[in-house]
């Protein structure tokens, strides 16, 4: 294997090239052959290591075919300017590795473990860490943030009697894939292998009580991923007594989350997500616009 660098934004995002190059990076995973995975990190200006900030990790899309780590950079800029620490991790994709679905999902779980394990060192509040992703990156966020049913039963059994690692405060999906066996999974580079093994890891199979809050957004004009599946998943999430909100953008297509393609949908989703997180108490109400700490 070879190191996976963070990608520079595509041509329509060239205004971010300098910021991407200046943003801090951390190696979050090393392999025995010397390969390592990095995460880009954006800290608000004046970030205080002693106060414990909210944080979000974004798993990029690309249906595991390509590395597109800069996809969420505009989102990270917006959130870091309002006080939220943002991470955009690289992970193994099939464009660069002979990697299985389970190995990709393991990268997601391992990054969540890295966030938790380094929260104190990075000045993060363990109770206000969130995971987000788009298309197959949504599967990764769900996998890392939704423990298997049997593990949640153990959490319930020992709740209050043992120190358990916290779950994410929220999982956010943007045109997220939510089912390994949905028709849109055919967009992945190769068929999902070992379906029997993946049944337990399938997000619908992990629905139940005591899940993190869910925020979901999807463009209703998306020709590739059916927005109605996102709506159904959010309804099922809430039916088990969990907090959930789903935003369906009437004029949004597959590119609704890109501010330079559809600024109206971008703002609608960003402001709705912000209001949801403030209501949960995970983010503080937005104050005057801040600046990024890049050095």
Briefly characterize the structure:
With 295 residues, the protein is α/β, with parallel strands linked by helices.
Structural descriptors:
295 residues; alpha/beta; 9-stranded mixed β-sheet; 9 helices; disordered N terminus
Question: Any chance you could write out the topology, listing elements then pairs?
Answer:
Blueprint: H1 17-22, E1 25-30, E2 36-44, E3 53-59, H2 73-81, E4 85-89, H3 101-117, H4 119-122, E5 124-135, H5 136-145, H6 149-158, E6 170-176, H7 195-198, E7 213-219, H8 227-239, E8 244-249, H9 263-280, E9 292-293
* Alpha-carbon Rg, integer: 18 Å
> Shape, please?
globular
Arithmetic mean pLDDT: 85
Helical residues, percent: 25-40%
Oligomer: single chain
The separation of the N and C termini measures 30 Å
User: How many DSSP E strands?
Assistant: 9
| Alpha-beta classification | alpha/beta
How much of the polypeptide forms β-strand, as a percent range? 15-25%
The sequence of SSEs as H and E is HEEEHEHHEHHEHEHEHE
Describe this structure in words.
With 295 residues, the protein is of the alpha/beta class. It has helices at 17-22, 73-81, 101-117, 119-122, 136-145, 149-158, 195-198, 227-239, 263-280, and strands at 25-30, 36-44, 53-59, 85-89, 124-135, 170-176, 213-219, 244-249, 292-293. Strands 1, 2, 3, 4, 5, 6, 7, 8 and 9 form a nine-stranded mixed β-sheet that branches. The chain is globular and about 45 Å long. Mean pLDDT is 85; it is low at 1-14 and 288-295.
